[in-house]
């Protein structure tokens, strides 16, 4: 099968390689000419036989919209576009309507696997009409892990990215739980080898997971994480998960708390804690610390 692939970064580049290893033809485009197979989207479309399939792996929002707009002017009725980035599910509905008006199919694919996907395969959560999804099945089969799991046609357009968004929200909460447990273990004097405690959990416990394995790998590289700054970015999907929960009146206390913990990580001197310190001083005479001079 032929596939056009736009965006050859850490994920897209490895996906191109995995699909090619499965025997398919991939024509890739990236703004970096050293990575790209073609000079631009017109050449990419020209090199594909109709009906064409083009997979988009660029950042969500304006970059994705720009690519969708350009493809809408280059592709023909019967072609299909796949958005495999981290777009918001509501954008999928918009893009499907825009392309559908021109007879172009649209599929959204939530992709998980990170830098390990080339070796282990990518978990795929797909949304769209059955006719469009079925046509892409050889590509999905090439990307997914071996075995019966790692792929789902989750539902209508938007369902793939919505499922991936919830997946990432759960990921936030799991990482936060490991992080809090690690900090508590590091804090007490009685536990003298926190890294080996984490390692012991990798077999026979109910909290074993790939994230735990990765935590042990990180501790092997830097036992007390002294080389890292306590700052964690959020991709945006954690926010969207919490917003969706509010819209649907679904309580998500653990995921919401993990998102707010990331916000707290960006504050070197928490404004909230200033007020807490001031109030404790006012009602109880508790000691306060002076702000450090710049």
From TrEMBL:
<keyword id="KW-0311">Gluconate utilization</keyword>
<dbReference type="InterPro" id="IPR004849">
    <property type="entry name" value="6DGDH_YqeC"/>
</dbReference>
<feature type="domain" description="6-phosphogluconate dehydrogenase C-terminal">
    <location>
        <begin position="160"/>
        <end position="294"/>
    </location>
</feature>
<dbReference type="InterPro" id="IPR008927">
    <property type="entry name" value="6-PGluconate_DH-like_C_sf"/>
</dbReference>
<dbReference type="Pfam" id="PF00393">
    <property type="entry name" value="6PGD"/>
</dbReference>
<dbReference type="InterPro" id="IPR006183">
    <property type="entry name" value="Pgluconate_DH"/>
</dbReference>
<dbReference type="InterPro" id="IPR006114">
    <property type="entry name" value="6PGDH_C"/>
</dbReference>
<dbReference type="GO" id="GO:0019521">
    <property type="term" value="P:D-gluconate metabolic process"/>
</dbReference>
<dbReference type="Pfam" id="PF03446">
    <property type="entry name" value="NAD_binding_2"/>
</dbReference>
<comment type="similarity">
    <text>Belongs to the 6-phosphogluconate dehydrogenase family.</text>
</comment>
<dbReference type="GO" id="GO:0006098">
    <property type="term" value="P:pentose-phosphate shunt"/>
</dbReference>
<dbReference type="GO" id="GO:0004616">
    <property type="term" value="F:phosphogluconate dehydrogenase (decarboxylating) activity"/>
</dbReference>
<keyword id="KW-0560">Oxidoreductase</keyword>
<protein>
    <submittedName>
        <fullName>6-phosphogluconate dehydrogenase</fullName>
    </submittedName>
</protein>
<dbReference type="InterPro" id="IPR006115">
    <property type="entry name" value="6PGDH_NADP-bd"/>
</dbReference>
<dbReference type="InterPro" id="IPR036291">
    <property type="entry name" value="NAD(P)-bd_dom_sf"/>
</dbReference>
<dbReference type="InterPro" id="IPR013328">
    <property type="entry name" value="6PGD_dom2"/>
</dbReference>
<dbReference type="GO" id="GO:0050661">
    <property type="term" value="F:NADP binding"/>
</dbReference>
């Amino acid at each position: 099968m032929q596939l056009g692939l736009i965006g050859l970064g850490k994920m897209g580049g490895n996906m191109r390689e995995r699909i090619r290893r499965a025997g398919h033809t991939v024509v890739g485009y990236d703004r970096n000419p050293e990575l790209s197979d073609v000079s631009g989207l017109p050449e990419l479309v020209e090199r594909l036989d109709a009906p064409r399939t083009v997979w988009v792996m660029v950042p969500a929002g304006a970059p994705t919209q720009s690519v969708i707009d350009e493809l809408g002017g280059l592709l023909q009725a019967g072609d299909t576009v796949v958005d495999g980035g981290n777009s918001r599910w509501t954008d999928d509905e918009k893009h499907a309507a825009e392309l559908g008006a021109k007879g172009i199919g649209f599929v959204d694919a939530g992709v998980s696997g990170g830098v390990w996907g080339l070796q282990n395969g990518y978990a795929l959560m797909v949304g769209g009409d059955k006719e469009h999804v079925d046509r892409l099945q050889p590509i999905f089969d090439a990307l997914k892990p071996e075995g019966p799991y790692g792929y789902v046609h989750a539902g209508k357009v938007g369902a793939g990215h919505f499922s991936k968004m919830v997946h990432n929200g759960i990921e936030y909460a799991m990482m936060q739980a490991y992080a809090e447990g690690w900090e508590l273990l590091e804090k007490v004097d009685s536990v003298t080898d926190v890294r080996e405690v984490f390692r012991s959990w990798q077999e026979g416990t109910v909290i074993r997971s790939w994230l735990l394995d990765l935590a042990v790998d990180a501790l092997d590289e830097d036992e007390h994480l002294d080389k890292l700054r306590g700052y964690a970015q959020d991709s945006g999907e954690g926010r969207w998960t919490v917003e969706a929960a509010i819209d649907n009146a679904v309580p998500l206390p653990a995921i919401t708390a993990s998102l707010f913990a990331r916000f707290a990580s960006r504050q070197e001197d928490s404004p909230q804690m200033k007020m807490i310190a001031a109030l404790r001083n006012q009602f109880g005479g508790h000691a306060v610390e002076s702000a450090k001079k710049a």
